[in-house]
Design a protein that fits this description.
Length: 378
C-alpha cells in the first residue's frame, strides 16, 4: 500500500534538480568558483585579477575572516575586494556541545533565513565535519528528522564549503576542546540529499580537495558523499575522476520494505541501486559503504541480514562494507532502535557471509546532533 504522502516527494523530484526560478541566490563567493572564475569576477568588476589568489589564501590557507588581518591587500581597495569575493554567507545562531566539547553542533542562518546545521566530531587522530547540502530534504524518509519538513532549498557550493571552513577556523584557533587541530574528514551526512544538489555538491568536493590556496587541500578519500540512491547521479559521480567515498543509505535489502523506508526506491529499485553502487566500486576501486539504520522489528530480522549479504555478494566479494547505525530515535516517530541482541545477531550473520561490518557510534545523540536528527528547529 502506498499512501499519497509517501509518493509525493517522488513527484516533486524535478524541482529538486532544477532550482525554482525567481529565487534570490546566495551571495557569490570565491568558494563557488575555480581560480580562473575568481580572477574573471574581479577583472569584470574593474579590480586587479591577481588579488584573487591573495583572497583565496586568506580564506582557504590562513582561515582568516577579518578584513583587518588581510594586510597584503591595499587598505583603499580591501573592502571592495572582500565584498566581491568574500561576502558573509551565514551566521551562527546557536552552538551546542556534547562529549565534553568533542562534538559541536552549529545551527546556521543563511542569507534568506533558511536554517541548516553542521556537526564537528573530534576523535583521537581525526576530526570529521558533517555538513548539510540542502536546507531541509525532499526525500521524505519516515525515520529521519530532516525528512519530515520537506525541502526548502538547495545550498550553494560556498554555503557547503563554509561549514567546513568554519570548523577548520575554530580548530586552528584552538577553540575546540583538545587544542589546535585540523579537519581531516568531511561527510555529506547532515541535512539534505547531496545527489539532488549535484552541481553544488561536486563543486564543494572540488574546493575541499583542490590544493591550497585554491581549496582546502583535503584528500578525496577522506570525503564521503552519502545518498538515498539517485542512480543517475551515482553513475555520474563514478565518472568524475575524484575518488571520494560513496555511502549508500540502503536500510533494507528488499523492495517491499525499502519502498517504505526510502521512498525514492519506488523509482530506483534495490537491484538498480546496488548495481550503481557496485559500478562505483568497479570504476573507482573505492569500497562502498552500505548504511543500514537498525530499526526494531522493522529491518533487523536475521533473515534480512542474510538477504543483505546475498544482495551484496551477488555482485562480487569485498566491494562493499556494511555500516550499521543504531537508529537515533526521533521524537514522535514510530521507529525505535533495535534490541542489542538483534543487532549482534545481524552483525554475526553478515560476517558469517563474509561482509565486513562496523557499528557506527552515535556521537551527539544528547544534543540531537546524531545521524538523521538534524532538523534545525528554532
Ligand atoms: N540524504 C543522504 C545524507 C543525509 S543522512 C542520505 O540519506 O544518505 C546521513 C545518514 O543518516 C543516512 O544514512 C540516513 O539514512 C541516516 N539516518 C537518517 N535518519 C536516521 C536516524 N533517525 N537514525 C540513524 N540514522 C539515520
Amino acid at each position: 500500500m502506498t499512501e499519497p504522502t509517501k509518493t509525493e516527494p517522488i513527484k516533486t523530484l524535478p524541482l529538486v534538480f532544477d532550482e525554482p526560478r525567481g529565487r534570490r541566490k546566495p551571495p557569490r563567493h570565491l568558494a563557488d568558483l575555480d581560480e580562473a572564475g575568481r580572477k574573471a569576477l574581479l577583472t569584470d568588476a574593474g579590480l586587479p585579477g591577481f588579488r584573487a589568489k591573495q583572497l583565496s589564501n586568506h580564506y582557504f590557507a590562513r582561515l582568516v575572516d577579518d578584513p583587518a588581518e588581510m594586510t597584503d591587500l591595499p587598505a583603499g581597495q580591501r573592502d571592495e575586494l572582500v565584498s566581491a569575493l568574500l561576502p558573509s554567507l551565514m551566521t551562527p545562531v546557536r552552538t551546542m556541545e556534547a562529549d565534553k566539547g568533542a562534538t559541536v553542533k552549529t545551527l546556521w542562518k543563511l542569507f534568506d533565513g533558511s536554517l541548516v546545521e553542521s556537526v564537528l566530531m573530534r576523535y583521537p587522530g581525526r576530526v570529521t565535519m558533517c555538513v548539510s547540502s540542502q536546507a531541509g530534504c525532499g526525500m521524505a524518509c519516515p525515520f529521519c528528522a530532516t525528512g519530515q519538513g520537506g525541502l526548502q532549498r538547495n545550498m550553494s557550493t560556498a554555503e557547503i564549503v563554509e561549514q567546513v571552513v568554519a570548523g577548520a577556523r575554530a580548530l586552528a584557533r584552538g577553540e575546540v576542546a583538545g587544542g589546535v587541530g585540523r579537519v581531516s574528514n568531511v561527510v555529506f551526512m547532515g541535512m539534505g540529499e547531496p545527489m539532488a544538489n549535484y552541481k553544488a555538491m561536486i563543486g564543494a568536493v572540488r574546493r575541499l580537495t583542490d590544493p591550497a590556496p585554491a581549496g582546502l587541500g583535503m584528500s578525496a578519500r577522506h570525503v564521503t558523499v552519502s545518498t538515498v540512491g539517485l542512480v543517475p547521479r551515482m553513475l555520474q559521480l563514478a565518472d568524475e575522476g575524484i575518488p571520494v567515498t560513496l555511502a549508500l543509505s540502503l536500510h533494507a535489502p528488499d523492495d517491499e520494505l525499502r519502498n517504505e523506508l526510502v521512498p525514492i526506491n519506488t523509482r530506483f529499485s534495490v537491484a538498480e541501486t546496488v548495481d550503481a553502487a557496485h559500478n562505483y566500486f568497479a570504476k573507482t576501486g573505492r569500497r562502498v559503504s552500505i548504511e543500514y539504520a537498525m530499526m526494531r522489528d522493522i529491518n533487523d530480522q536475521a533473515w534480512r541480514a542474510d538477504l543483505l549479504a546475498d544482495v551484496l555478494n551477488e555482485r562480487g566479494r569485498g566491494w562493499a562494507h556494511a555500516n550499521l547505525i543504531p537508529l537515533n530515535e526521533v521524537p514522535g516517530s514510530q521507529f525505535t532502535r533495535s534490541r542489542e541482541e538483534d543487532m549482534e545477531e545481524f552483525v554475526r550473520r553478515l560476517e558469517a557471509k563474509g561482509i565486513s561490518t562496523t557499528m557506527r557510534d552515535t556521537r551527539g545523540n544528547d544534543i540531537d546532533a546524531a545521524c538523521g536528527q538534524l532538523a534545525a528547529s528554532e
